[in-house]
Each structure stands twice: as structure tokens, then as C-alpha cells.
Amino acid sequence: MAQNARPTAAKREREKNLAERRKQKEARRRLSKERKDMPGGRMDGLDPDIAHIRPGPQPLADWQIDGEGEEEVVEEE
Residues 32, 35, 36, 42: is their CA dihedral positive or negative? Predict the structure, then answer.
């Protein structure tokens, strides 16, 4: 039995897609590295997500304050 030694069109298409994905992945990596290296991304080196958080106990949330002063008194007869 003779085998077809030439690559099929499907294989060529797969290889083309793989090469394109590799190029896109390299471009994403390059952009990510450039973004990390870029100065001025954050002010004074602070993360904007945690800039407002202070160390230590945090203030109570509104839902925690509402019922704090109201205690139920159970009367015994």
C-alpha cells in the first residue's frame, strides 16, 4: 500500500492556525511586558484597589450599625 506523503489541506490549515496563534500570543506577552515596564501606571506606587484601606480594624458597615443599639429584653413572669 502506498501512503500519501504530501500533507493534506487540513494539515496545512492547522499549521497555519497554530502559527497565527503563536504570533498573537507573542504580541499579548509583549504588550503585557510593556505595560508592566511603563512608569506612571500607578500614583506613588499605590494600588488603586486598596489605596483607601487603612491597617487595623475597619469601620462598621451600615448594615452592622443599624441594629446595634436595639437589644431585645426578655421579661420573665
Answer: negative
